[in-house]
Automatic annotation (TrEMBL):
Superkingdom classification of source: Eukaryota
Listed name of the protein: Sulfate transporter
Record carries keyword Membrane: yes
GO terms for biological process, alphabetical: chloride transmembrane transport; chondrocyte differentiation; chondrocyte proliferation; sulfate transmembrane transport
Origin species: Gallus gallus
SUPFAM superfamilies assigned to the protein according to its UniProt record, in alphabetical order: SpoIIaa-like
Length: 715
């Protein structure tokens, strides 16, 4: 027995009050003492402001350590236990990340050097600000696709065509020009900033705005937005985006020189263009693509099948890139067969430059889904691996970290990043202990940037396309899980299918919005038409369960127990009524109407002077028993009530009382009880009729009925 709730004993029959107060003695009366009233809003605001604005050395230290988590774990770094695993995992991830960074650059509408820049900066910045020990932050295919679509649109709007063009030897000069003048036409703009230069300006601006959004979400602590992106929705989005990614890379597999389609229906448009130009297929690129698939897919499968036995996955992508580059260079495939190659990749870094401020109005809306997807994937992966390894991450700090991974690199010609599941799994499985592994990965990429990058000049673009497509296997394999997903949850499966189809067939942004809206509608529909089963008593217990779900349950004579499994509010109030009438088999309005009709008929018969036999039959019809005297509504699943819900309960109780059936509520949570009190649901003096359990309410109903029967027999 707690200090806040006290239950009186059941009164004996001889102690029961007479008349209307008799009912009060048949249940454990529950006395709840409310908490003290909260102070007024002004006092709470003043207290919070004082707490926030107060500045002490300890508070400053905590704030700095919280904002820069590296200052907490780096001084405690255990060289003996962690260094070897971090170096090993960092090198392995770096080896895998180099060819992927080059390949995914094409997906984002950029040249290969920018993908290397992006991977280099992301690892260092996340190490400083991130709280996860294991996730790998870098290039993510779906985000690259979304950035690439914005880049294509803005490049076309600026007057450039979307025809693919190989690097020129003078690309460095064009890229080093720092111009913030918006292009008016293609001819004048080429003198200041060519298509390649303008494309990275667009990508960097989108990345900057997305990072600002993510930092703002962390500052205002609105990470709850990610709850609207369920696992099934994110999975469907990634799978749908994978189809678009595959489609965008198909032209490189065939060596076709066609413009990249963007906007609504880009997937269908791209395939139409491919089939229209299929006769222009480059046989050399097709053979190279086939050979790369022949090597990459079996080796990747072996890596996955024997990952528990392998100390490190086979770096097959790097092997393929090196071999393909040598073959292309020695065989002069570009000069002899016209194969499209990566072209000149400069060494070193370009001077930093700010985003294109004039482009912000054009791309501000596009950056919203990019920001939301980026932080949702990062936070979910961080929490997943933190739970697995027994530590905690801070969701808001993770939003700061991924935001800064986009803001700062955007000044160094980078595009959007987030955590990536495949690389994170490899990082974890190869001995990663801390984010020092991310520093090692960045150092490896730095070596490539400073020394090795120009050696990839002869690398065919079809090889990069094959690497991108092979890495989509995980997302495309989700189709194999559909039967299991359907068995577990049909609603989640439908959400997955709708999000996947709309992301692939319409566009990635519209697909994401469609998935969010559809999943919210599913929640509304599920509360609009919830289950409302009848309950039965589990023998030798105080438990009541669904009669339709379990066997061997007992029902108490004269008592109907029903559970409403949803909040009761304006959307489902009529559903609540119809479920109650259906399950009890009695609609009070129809019963009252039948009684009135019978009474009128009796009156007419009496006035007409008909026989007394007919009148007695009509009286029997009017007073025919309903089969029950009490309805107990189990409210354990009713999270809240609104004004429409309170009004509905009042109407139901009133209507059933008029036909001599009482309605009792059981297992109401504090929020529902408070709403009932404020809504004046109880009559004066009856606020104690709050039943702690269904069993208690049923006992009260049976006791009250027995007492009424005894009183009637005495009279």
């Amino acid at each position: 027995m707690t200090a806040m709730a006290e239950f009186s004993n059941v009164q004996s029959e001889s102690e029961m009050p007479e008349g209307g107060d008799a009912k009060r003695g048949f249940h454990h009366r529950m006395f709840l003492e409310p908490q003290e009233e909260k102070r007024n809003l002004k006092a709470l605001v003043v207290k919070q402001v004082k707490k926030t604005c107060s500045c002490t050395p300890a508070k400053v230290k905590d704030c700095v350590l919280s904002f820069f988590p590296i200052l907490q774990w780096l001084p405690k770094y255990n060289l003996k236990e962690c260094l070897l695993g971090d170096i090993m995992s960092g090198v392995i991830v770096g080896v895998l990340l180099v060819p992927q960074s080059i390949a995914y650059s094409l997906l984002a509408g950029q040249e290969p050097i920018y993908g290397l820049y992006t991977s280099f900066f992301a690892g260092i910045i996340y190490c400083i600000f991130g709280t996860s020990h294991h996730i790998s932050v870098g290039i993510f295919g779906a985000l690259c696709l979304m950035v690439g679509q914005v880049v294509d649109r803005e490049v076309l709007r600026a007057g450039y065509d979307l025809e693919p063009a190989a690097f020129s030897d003078h690309m460095d000069t064009a890229m080093h020009v720092n111009s913030t003048i918006a292009p008016v036409n293609q001819t004048s703009q080429k003198l200041l900033c060519d298509k390649t230069c303008y494309a990275i300006k667009v990508g960097a601006t989108v990345t900057f705005i997305a990072g600002v959004y993510q930092v703002a979400m962390g500052f205002f602590q609105v990470g709850f937005v990610s709850v609207y992106l369920s696992d099934s929705l994110l999975s469907g989005f990634v799978t749908g985006a994978s189809f678009t990614i595959l489609t965008s890379q198909a032209k490189y597999l065939l060596g076709l020189d066609i413009p990249r389609s963007s906007g609504v229906g880009s997937l269908i448009t791209t395939w139409i263009n491919i089939f229209r130009n299929i006769h222009k297929t480059n046989i050399c690129d097709v053979i190279t693509s086939f050979l790369c698939f022949l090597v990459l897919i079996p080796t990747k499968e072996l890596n996955e099948r024997f990952k528990s036995r392998l100390k490190a996955p086979i770096p097959v992508e790097l092997v393929v890139v090196v071999a393909a580059t040598l073959a292309s260079h020695l065989g002069k495939l570009k000069e002899t067969y016209g194969s499209s190659v990566a072209g000149h990749i400069p060494t070193g870094f370009l001077p930093p430059s700010p985003p294109e401020w004039n482009l912000i109005p054009n791309v501000a809306l596009d950056a919203i889904p990019i920001a939301v997807i980026g932080f949702a994937i990062t936070v979910s992966l961080s929490e997943m691996f933190a739970k697995k390894h027994g530590y905690t991450v801070k969701a808001n700090q993770e939003m700061y970290a991924i935001g800064f991974c986009n803001i700062f690199p955007s000044f160094f010609h980078c595009f959007t990043t987030s955590a990536a599941l495949a690389k994170t799994l490899i990082k974890e499985s190869t001995g990663c202990r801390t984010q020092v592994s991310g520093i090692v990965t960045s150092l490896l990429i730095l070596i490539v940037l400073l020394v090795i990058a120009p050696l990839f000049y002869s690398l065919q673009k079809c090889v990069l396309a094959v690497i991108t497509i092979v890495n989509l296997r995980g997302a495309l394999r989700k189709f194999r899980d559909l039967p299991k997903m359907w068995h577990l949850s049909r609603v989640d499966t439908v959400i997955w299918l709708v999000t996947m189809a709309s992301s692939a067939l319409i566009s990635t942004e519209i697909g994401l919005l469609t998935g969010v809206c559809f999943s919210m509608l599913c929640v509304i529909f599920r509360t609009q038409k919830p289950e409302a089963p009848l309950l039965g008593w589990v023998a030798e217990s105080e438990t009541y369960e669904s009669l339709s779900a379990y066997k061997n349950l007992e029902t108490k004579p004269g008592v109907v127990v029903l559970r409403f499994e949803a909040p009761l509010y304006y959307i489902n109030k009529e559903c609540f009524k119809s479920a109650l009438y259906k399950q009890t088999g009695v609609n009070p309005a129809l019963v009252k109407a039948a009684k009135k009709k019978a009474a009128k008929r009796m009156l007419r018969e009496k006035e007409a002077g008909s026989g007394g036999n007919q009148t007695s039959i009509s009286m029997e019809l009017v007073s025919e028993p309903l089969g029950f005297h009490t309805i107990v509504i189990d409210c354990c699943a009713v999270q809240f009530l609104d004004t429409a819900g309170i009004r509905t309960l009042k109407e139901v109780c009133k209507d059933y009382n008029e036909i001599d059936v009482q309605v009792l509520l059981a297992q109401c949570n504090p929020s529902v009880r408070s709403s009932l009190m404020r809504g004046e649901f109880f009559k004066e003096g009856e606020d104690h009729l709050l039943f702690h359990s269904v069993h208690q309410a049923v006992d009260f109903a049976l006791g009250a009925q027995e007492h009424s029967r005894i009183c009637a027999s005495k009279n």
